[in-house]
Amino acid sequence: MLAITGTPGVGKTTVAKILEKRGYRVGSVNEIAKKYGCIEEEEGELVVDIKKLRESFSEDLDFIEGHLSHYLADRCVVLRCNPLTLKERLKSKGWDEEKILENLEAELIDQILIEALDVCSEVHEIDTTRMTPEELADLIEKIYRGELKLGYGRIDWISVIGDEIEEIIRKV
Question: How does residue 44 score in pLDDT terms, banded at 50, 70 and 90?
Fold first, then answer.
């Protein structure tokens, strides 16, 4: 099983739907967590109890998608997106300013990548900023089949956007 992970807005769900249409068995962390009763309320927000989910998870899938999916698989693809583009995507989804800032920060500091490196034996990183969902699905299929190894560590948003970081934070 290959996890498709990354901060919200990078394209996980979109590419998962394409892979499912291509005949793969695909699951969503949130849906599976609901199925196994692993969702709890903390400070007014619903959160996945990942430890409980790992203990009860028994799905036979090709792919699992979600920003916590790397905790359920040994292999994962971390989808990344330029924070300038990500900000616009999250705004267009109607996200509030605080949540947008929280997710932009996570993307800037490689939070999901670092988590994935702690728990997965194989990690690939893909910049989705200028890719079509179909191109992304093609790449992920090749990784799944063992035909492509991308590795990680090539994406550094701070050096790419540098001076624009303040602008991103100010104009959410």
Answer: confident
